[in-house]
Specification:
This protein has 329 residues and is mostly helical. It has 14 helices and 2 strands. The protein has one domain: Orthogonal Bundle (ABC transporter involved in vitamin B12 uptake, BtuC). Strands 1-2 form a two-stranded antiparallel sheet.
Length: 329
């Protein structure tokens, strides 16, 4: 009886659900602390700002979740997002295509970059860190070349800005203006969760992270599924590119560096293990909000930006350390 109880306790404290619970508890504590420290924190406009800031990083983190569960990594999501934004601008502004066709072009750009990552990793046997690092530079360079080093503005397509900054909720409930970018993020999270938990792609994502060799020996085409997973991550990067371009009403070719680190941080804080085989979309969403709330709260308290970066880095290290301790036990 005692042994069974002890085993159950260990199972609870070592579970992925526990780490998600701790991340959520940390999020609530930050809300309380920042609300007490500044009366401006819990204002509706600031909460909307937090939601809006979370949307782009959160969408990127959704794709990274799939990759990290396979025990891989994708360092290119930030610059692929920028490339997708630039291509969207090229299609809509420079080529004069309809907005909906430009959006599809941006999504396709992200998916193609993800496919290239997966092909290089699965077929050429190049480690994910090196392959996606190379794609980081390729996407960054292409963004600068295609745009001619200049931002691309969507002044001739006023409806494009409404994709992210319009408000469906405001039209339904006057005064309750939640930007569409936030709704896109939550919608993408629901779709990502369904894919991860209800489809064969999700099952093989966990299988690859748990034991890739055993998965291969069981007759699964590991290369094909790995390419599919990286393509999906690229698709989410393309969506983030469309959203950030719509939010800024321009495609900024120099933007994107550093976004991949925040996305990875959100995934790790949310309880997805860097060792693979374990993770969840809900945890990633919580992790993305932890990053945004922390950044917003420190900014309101007038903490210098360099110290904001230091604190965020320390939290990421603690999250990884907690995962290591949990796995050892």
């Amino acid at each position: 009886m005692t042994t069974n109880t002890t085993t159950q306790k260990k199972s609870f404290f070592n579970s992925d659900a526990t780490q998600k619970l701790l991340a959520f508890a940390g999020l609530i504590i930050m809300f309380i602390v920042f609300s007490l420290a500044s009366e401006n924190f819990f204002q509706f406009s600031n909460i909307v700002g937090i939601l809006l800031a979370t949307s782009v990083n959160g969408i990127l983190a959704l794709g990274v979740t799939f990759v990290i569960i396979t025990a891989g990594i994708d360092l290119s999501v930030g610059t692929v997002m920028t490339l997708a934004a630039v291509m969207t601008g090229m299609f809509i502004t420079n080529l004069g295509l309809p907005v909906w066709l430009g959006v599809i072009g941006g999504l396709a750009t992200g998916a193609l970059a993800g496919f290239s990552n997966g092909f290089i990793i699965a077929k050429m046997r190049i480690p994910p860190f090196i392959a996606t690092l190379g794609m980081l530079y390729i996407a960054k360079g292409l963004s600068l070349v295609i745009s001619g080093l200049k931002p691309i503005y969507f002044s001739d397509a006023p409806s494009f800005n409404k994709i992210a900054m319009g408000s469906v909720t405001g039209a339904i409930i006057p005064g309750f203006d939640i930007p569409n970018a936030v709704l896109i993020f939550f919608g993408a999270a629901i779709i990502a969760n369904i894919i991860l938990t209800k489809t064969i792609l999700g099952r093989y994502t966990f299988a690859l992270g748990s034991n890739e060799e055993a998965t291969r020996l069981s007759g699964v085409n590991v290369s094909a599924w790995k390419i599919a997973i990286y393509t999906l991550a690229g698709l989410f990067s393309g969506l983030a590119g469309v959203v950030i371009a719509s939010r800024l009403n321009s495609a900024q070719p120099a933007l994107g560096a550093g976004y991949e680190l925040e996305a990875i941080a959100a995934v790790v804080i949310g309880g997805t293990s860097l060792s693979g085989g374990e993770g969840s979309i809900l945890g990633t969403v919580i992790g993305a909000f932890v990053i945004s709330v922390l950044t917003n709260g420190l900014r309101i308290l007038s903490i210098p930006q360099e110290w904001q970066i230091v604190i965020t880095g320390a939290i990421v290290i603690l999250a990884v350390w907690a995962d290591i301790l949990r796995r050892r036990q």
